[in-house]
């Protein structure tokens, strides 16, 4: 059967069956944002993300921004595990017709993102390709298996939180892709959220340091999609309350006056690099204190429930994220 | 300036200048087969290799063989550092028109190679792409910084060795690509060397365990190319003696009777997964004993010299490997 008839989930599921493993592998392919390998008493997390110009780098994105985003996407997967990134590799596929200055600008963008996240940029590979391709790989470290923020760690009754404002990046994407505009100052902030996202390393580390059982993942594929991933992996559901969702003033205004929609409607577009986390209610006060002490925020947006469904207030949410393999275009 | 006017070396050099690093990074981009990060008293080596159907997977290669080779190429870079591979990730770019069974067969080939090299296959990424793309990433472990087999570790007076027969894989490539044939039994052996190469992990580990200063890299890009890499990184030259080069009976016959050439002429085609190593003469006997105790071979093929040139007997060797960016096709 052709991949275009199956969609990403089924492809991944077919590709990750029966993989060779050994006893020091803590987390293997499939479920979490990164694999984890037990090594000398700690967990080495390891993840990779591949991007192609035709799908992932919209027209209008500068090469520095392409590089930044490729690095940040990988580093965010490490942050989502509650680990500290320790090294990044970039493997490039490059059309020979590209200008060196363009490729250097991409590399500079990667390097800037690595510096901003204190993650050394240690190498990679360079090959000829028909299409600009960037495959980033990153390793990180987490002190113990129990500290990892696994998708399957949510339990009904949990408090469900995010680490910051939602929707800014989706608005920024509309500015870049559709030329929509609110006002120069707001546009700049929203564009920046889309083009130069920051991985939530400090929040992830603050949470993993608590010694509590906490579920986490980033919401780059959309809040509801991620909520469903955590719910499915944990065997529970999640109820999100619209009134509790944190939006910036700019995102609210952009949604209402430019997109003529409630800001909650743009959350399925993803692109935010905040974390979605779920923890026991008793752990929430010290988790919030720890994240705030690290300079971040922890905002309760709902709770985990017994029924295996994602709700926005009373309504079931469509949790099917965008699927490039199924998309007709 | 366009990449097609520069070639790979200049591109890589431009992309690896001034990368963000930190004090725990032992080896960064550029010189060696892998980066190395100091962590809890050991070295974590980390490398990535990207392959595209149009350049790297010749017609006639089965999907299992594509997968095997993608994994083995990465694992060989870890072996060349004297490290033990501990986890492998594969990120795929997949045309939606591909059949799932084809992609599963690639994944099976990767998994088989991972099992053969005792390296867990722990995950990766899957994206839509115009061209079949496989980016492998691997981490490995080496007990200490001084144990790493670095390209720059050669010194004039060194013994220069390889870990096994040369040219089998290049003959196998001719069988697959050009339909040339010697006899069924020989063809099978030579094809296998090209399609299912084995990384020299045990030999690499045996050498790194000696506590001696040893240079190493694999010779997948060609023996003379690799000799020049080690020579350049070490600030010396290498003299190789044709009479000392180990060829299998099959490669000798194939070269002479099918290619009408001396077998040394096919070594620039690369594809062998043996290691090229350089060590102090005093360390050679125990190095040979250690590699043989691990089930491998260590064959002296020449010596490192003061003059910064690679010689085959008395002649300077053309050390420019194939450059996909400069190639006119």
SSE order and pairing:
The structure is a homodimer of 329-residue chains.
Chain A: H1 3-6, H2 8-15, E1 25-27, E2 35-39, E3 42-52, H3 53-56, H4 63-79, E4 84-94, H5 100-116, E5 121-128, E6 133-142, E7 159-162, H6 168-178, H7 184-195, H8 201-208, E8 214-218, H9 223-234, E9 237-240, H10 249-258, E10 275-279, H11 284-293, E11 299-305, E12 310-312, E13 315-316
Parallel strand pairs in A: 4-5, 9-12
Antiparallel strand pairs in A: 1-2, 2-3, 3-6, 4-6, 7-10, 7-11, 8-10, 9-11, 12-13
Helix pairs in contact in A: 4-5, 4-8, 6-7, 8-11
Mean pLDDT of chain A: 95
The portion of residues forming beta strands of chain A comes to: 15-25%
Order of helices and strands of chain A: HHEEEHHEHEEEHHHEHEHEHEEE
Q: Give the helix level of chain A as a range of percent.
A: 25-40%
Q: In CATH terms, what is the architecture of the largest domain in chain A? A: Alpha-Beta Complex
**Which CATH class of the largest domain in chain A is shown?**
Alpha Beta
For this structure, the CATH topology of the largest domain in chain A is Phosphoribosyl-aminoimidazole Synthetase, Chain A, domain 2
How many domains of chain A, as an integer?
Answer: 2
Oligomer: homodimer
Radius of gyration of chain A: 19 Å
State the major sheet of chain A: 7 strands, mixed
Strand tally of chain A is 13
Task: Give the largest interface pair and sizes.
Answer: A-B, 83 and 83 residues
User: What count of helical segments of chain A does DSSP give?
Assistant: 11
Instruction: Trace the largest sheet of chain A across and list its strands.
Output: 8-10-7-11-9-12-13
CATH superfamily of the largest domain in chain A: PurM-like C-terminal domain
Low-confidence stretches of chain A: none
How widely separated are the two ends of chain A?
19 Å
